[in-house]
Amino acid sequence: MTNTNCLKGFQCPKCKSFGPFRIEVTTTILMYDDGSDYDHDGLEWEEDSYCECNECDFHGMVKDFQTSQCSWCRKETHEKLTTIKNATDDLSYIDVCKDCIGVVFKDIPEAKIID
Questions:
Q1: How far apart are CA 115 and CA 98, in angstroms?
Q2: pTM for this prediction
Q3: Domains of the chain: which residue ranges?
Q4: Per-residue pLDDT tens over the stretch 51-84
Q5: What is the DSSP string of 24-52?
Q6: For a disulfide at 22, which of 49, 52, 88, 99, Cβ 3.0-4.6 Å?
Q7: C-beta separation of 48 from 84 below 8 A
Q8: Minimal CA–CA distance to 79: which of 55, 60, 98?
Q9: Beta carbons within 8 Å of 70's beta carbon, 6+ residues apart
Q10: Which residues of the chain have pLDDT under 70?
């Protein structure tokens, strides 16, 4: 089942599990000489934070586990999407997977690749 909360857009690139994942996080706590009150609020991570799949032990960085959705076919993918602009409308941009690039240019011949 696709994640819809804290792990939205996360999926293991190896076993396709939606979690849970072990993630290296940063947080702020109130620390006393004899310990802390360890409050779980405010957990943060970055794209380059360590991440490990609990199902298959695959590990890498958070960015390796994040998926993006193709604007054309709506497929979730780990691949880098290509941004395409409609040349006749400077405000229309879409991010598409490699499988959809040809289809986009067939349907919108004036489209241009941005990155």
A1: 12
A2: 0.68
A3: 1-66, 68-113
A4: 999 999 999 999 999 988 888 998 888 888 888 8
A5: --B----EETTEE----TT-B--TTSEEE
A6: 52
A7: no
A8: 98
A9: 77, 81, 95, 96, 97, 99, 100
A10: 39-41, 89-91, 115
